[in-house]
Amino acid sequence: MSTPQDPYRQGQARFAPQPFPQLPEQPAPFGLPGEPPRQQSRRKLWIILGSIGGVLLLVILGVVILVNVVGSATNQAKGLADDFTKRVIAGDSSGAYDQYLDPALQKQLSKESFISGVKSLEMDSSCQPAYNNLKVATDNGVKSAEVVGQISCTGKKVDLAYRFEGTDQMRMTNIKLRPAA
User: Fold this and answer.
1) Distance (Å, rounded) from C-alpha 102 to C-alpha 120?
2) Which of 136, 149, 155, 168 could form a disulfide linkage to 131, CB 3.0–4.6 angstroms apart?
């Protein structure tokens, strides 16, 4: 029955040891045995990626707005210079004087002297403007633009330099039209 070496095994000799139930190869960490493991939460990853995406979107939006603001001011200045120069070339110096010159410049330069100065340049329909330098700036809501270039006519060239300033509507505050040296 029992052996002196093992006094506590008296009642267990008749029973065969029960085998343990076989467990799955990889037990589920927080589920019942046999359930597929739960996927890890990627919440932090999505928060980080969303934040990076939001910052990139704001940077792109800022660049687009900056390009539009600078581009629109540049286009406005070039358009003003083009319109003024085309009127002067076409012989509508009086209309160009009235529409584009700032009242302060009109006080310094009479309409008659402006018209006679433009006529002395003898520009005709063969003349074409070309702008070499166009600088645009905004200071305390006042836009300014400096336009420098040349009017090329058959047999001659005329240097031009205009300065436009204004808040809503830009007007010419400085003008130089003279034969190229």
Assistant:
1) 22
2) 149
Domains defined along the chain, listed by start: 43-179 (3.10.450.100)
CB 38 within 8 A of CB 46: no
Question: How far apart, in Å, are the Cα atoms of 80 and each of 15, 72, 158?
Answer: 108, 12, 18
Q: Are 61 and 68 in contact (CB under 8 A)?
A: no
The tens digit of pLDDT for each residue in 153-180 reads 998 999 999 999 988 888 999 999 999 8
The span from the CA of 98 to the CA of 121, in Å, is 20
Q: Grade residue 149 by pLDDT with cuts at 50, 70 and 90.
A: very high
| 91-103: average pLDDT | 93
Here the tokens at position 173 are 């505050």
